[in-house]
Each structure stands twice: as C-alpha cells, then as structure tokens.
Amino acid sequence: xxxxxxxxxATITGMNRGHQxxxxxxxxxxxxxxxxxxxxxxxxxxRDGITDTRxxxxxxxxxxxxxTAGDPVRIASISKLVTAIGVMRLVEAGKLDLDADAGDAxxxxxxxxxxxxxxxxxxxxxSHRSSLTxxxxxxxxxxxxxxxxxxxxxxxxxxxxxxxxxFRYTNLNFPLVAQAMERATGERFDRxxxxxxxxxxxxxxxxxxxxxxxxxxxxxxxxxDGDGTPAKDDLHGVRPACPVIEAEDxxxxxxxWRAGSNGALFSPQGGLRxxxxxxxxxxxxxxxxxxxxxxxxxxxxSVKALATPLWxxxxxxxxxxxxxxxxxxxxxxxxxxxxxxxxxxxxxxxxDDPFGDGIARVGHSGSAYGLQSGLWLDLAGGxxxxxxxxxxxxxxxxxxxxxxxxxxxxxxx
Length: 413
Description:
Blueprint: H1 17-32, E1 39-46, E2 50-60, E3 65-66, E4 73-74, H2 78-92, H3 102-106, H4 122-126, H5 173-185, H6 189-198, E5 206-207, H7 214-218, E6 223-224, E7 230-232, E8 272-274, H8 276-287, E9 291-292, E10 295-296, H9 300-307, E11 311-312, E12 335-336, E13 341-342, E14 362-368, E15 371-378, E16 383-390, H10 405-411
Antiparallel strand pairs: 1-2, 1-16, 2-3, 4-8, 5-8, 6-7, 9-10, 11-12, 13-14, 14-15, 15-16
Helix pairs in contact: 2-5, 2-6
C-alpha cells in the first residue's frame, strides 16, 4: 500500500527504505521542474507608480542569488522599442526625418537591388517594412568592420516585395537605424541612448554592458537556455573583457569606433541591459504621454506615432513570426507600428493575445538565448506590465496563444 501526501511531505508504507527514497525522488521531480523558468520577474504599474511585483527563482544558480526586480537583464527585442524612443527624440530635435530616404542619413545608398527606384525610409526600417531580411546576418560585424558590407549580400534582401509593402520582422533594420543616429549626432550609440533615454528617465541601464557601473555588473541576471545552461551574461561579477564583437585582429580598443560605420556594435536590436523596474519607468512615461516625474522625454504626438499600427496582417502582406528565432509559431505579429506591437488583433490567423481579454495593448516582446520578455501597455486604461523569464526553450510553447504558457501566466494579474 502506498499513501502520498504532497502537502506536508510524502509518507509511504509497504515498501523498503530504498524503494521509498526512489519513489519520493520520482514524485518530487515533476514538482520541482514542471517547466518552470530558472527566474521570472513581473512588475505591474500604472501612471503613478509600481502596483505589484512578483519574483521567482535565481538570477545566478552558481551562487544561489535570488532574482530581484532591480537586477539588469539582457531584455532582447524590447531594446528595439527603447531605441525607437531615442529616434523620436532626434526627430523632434530636427536631426532625423522619418520619411526621407534613409540613405541620406546613412551616407550611402540604401536600395533593394530588385527595386532600385524605391527609397527606404527610417519609418520603414522601424516598422519592419524595409524589404531587408536577416539572411545575411545582423550582429556579426566586428569592431574593425563596416555594417554596409552586409547589404552587398543578396540574402539581405527580399527580392519579391518592394519596400513599404510587406512586413518581415528583421533585426538588421535596427543596426541601420542606430548607424543613422550616430551619423546624425557624432555620438556612440550606447552613450547617445544613455543621454537621450536612460538618464532622463532615471534608469540604470546600458547597451552591451559598456556603460553600466560595477554594481550593475555584480547584479547581472544570468540568462540560461531551456536546458538550464548559461547562455549569456554569466559574468560572476566581472565586467566582460570586450563588450562588443572584437576586431578581426582580436583587439578590443573602442577608440576605433567611428560614427556611422557599424551600428550593430552595441546591439540596438536586443542588447539593452535593464531591470524590470527600469522597464516600468519606460512604460509609465509612455502611459503619461511622454512625461515621467515632471520630465518630458517625448511629445504626446511622438508616443502616438510609435504606437499607431503601420501594418496589420492580411493574407499575403507579411509574416506573422520571426524567421531568425527558429520559432515558426504563426499569428504572433499581427499589428506593428514603429517598434511597437499591438496585441489582440481581431483577424483570423492572429494569436497575439497572451492576456486573453481582447484589450489592444501596445509594447514589445523579446526572445533570445533562453529569455522571454514583454513590456505591454493598456494606454486607455492607464496600466501596464513588464516581465521576463530565463531558462526558457527556443519555442514559445504551451500557451493558448502564440505566446508561451509561462508568459501567459505572467500576463495574469
């Protein structure tokens, strides 16, 4: 006879001691694993401040350090939204034009070889309608290289759809955007983003660790893959020897940086290190029409421009998944503005509502190296949520929507 009580512990009768221990281990294993992330953080907020915080797991398994809402993590593609906020600040200052030929801002022609007479604009780059693809890569350009060389590879281009007519989620768009930002200001992208966005919002963060202080390095969240193996930022409190892709000769002298030559260097598409509390500050600024704690970062019209969809899925006009991740879950992207996704699209084939309530929240998701993340805002209701989870599989699995079951649980209040 076997009697098991999973509340206060397990009691087993009718078996020898060795079999009892083995059965207890088997019974406990699903409870301990159960597909749970290594760490997860959820921060709810409204226009006035943080309303609730949920924490689970460890930031660093090697030390047993518990995760907190103030720990910086590589937040993946939410970086694109933060980059776009920096772009809009430069647009407001008259240094960039969303609808001019982006080649003018880059200093070289940016044209799809199959459609040489069609200009590509910053607005198209920010909304993934540029006709670029990730087929030739987007982050591998070393410190000594120039991003422009990727554009000579035919795989970098969609030869079927003209610019402005088709949505394809493409990371390469954002290194080109960052490159235009650098050339417009003469400033290194990570430092420019600190000046334009992070400092005004009182956020301790950085792109690719170069600008973060030692205290932030010590609190870094290790990103584990779906097998629980460290995949990124296993720093042990030590600053990375090189925060960017080394030069071809193996050196890492950031003095070699040149404005407007390699916008991929500081990973504008996914390399922002920021805490969930920091994301909440960005969300609150957007909920408040561009202002936080008396500091205006964006004009209300700029917030509206970011959030307004420039593309909505209809058969034949775009892809509803990201090709680069290898996760072919369709129906994930169905409405997209300038680095802002809109959820809960009421169109057949769209599965973009992890909240399950039909509210058209705006924001951005992230997925890389075993991390899944989200920053989502109900602009009308004045509430938002930021989350991340580490130790996740490559595919967003288990949910009723195109998001993962873990993300759906984090979406729940």
